[in-house]
Amino acid sequence: MSAKGRLILAALMSSMMVFMVTLLVTYLNLGLRPDFLLKWGQAYVIAWPVAATTAFLVMPMARRATCRILFMLESRA
Predict the structure, then answer these.
(1) Contact (CB, 8 A) for 47 and 21
(2) CA–CA distance, 40 with 12 (Å, rounded to integer)
(3) Which of 17, 27, 10 is nearest to 47 (CA)?
(4) pTM of the entire structure?
(5) Can you say whether residue 31 is alpha, beta or left, with left for phi > 0 and alpha for psi between -120 and 50 degrees?
(6) pLDDT at position 2, please?
(7) Which residue, of 4, 5, 22, 71, is most buried by count of CB atoms within 10 Å of its CB?
(8) What's the gap between Cα 51 and its chain centre?
């Protein structure tokens, strides 16, 4: 996959995951209070760039590890 493709995939995947995780964690920590959406939005804006960068950098290693695991599982069968 090209660097541009990896960047788009990392941005989309991390955006969706951070959306759900920050929503859940903000709700569990604060409950539904009047400033819930503001606090959740702040958490999302902070977490998403970190997650996107991490996903972009880690994806090649995760793909290689996945291939190795699948190879080991398939060789056992």
Answers:
(1) yes
(2) 19
(3) 17
(4) 0.78
(5) left
(6) 86
(7) 22
(8) 5
Q: What's the rounded Cα separation, in Å, for the pair 52 and 61?
A: 15
Does the CA dihedral 57-62-67-72 come out positive or negative? positive
Mean pLDDT by 10 residues, the chain (77 residues): 88 96 97 97 97 93 94 89
Phi/psi of residue 37, nearest 5 degrees: -65, -35
Determine how many CB atoms are found less than 10 A away from the CB of residue 8.
Answer: 13
Q: Which whole-number Å values give the CA distances from 72 to 58, 59, 65, in the listed order? A: 21, 20, 11
Which pLDDT belongs to residue 1?
A: 77
* Domain boundaries along the sequence of the chain: 3-76
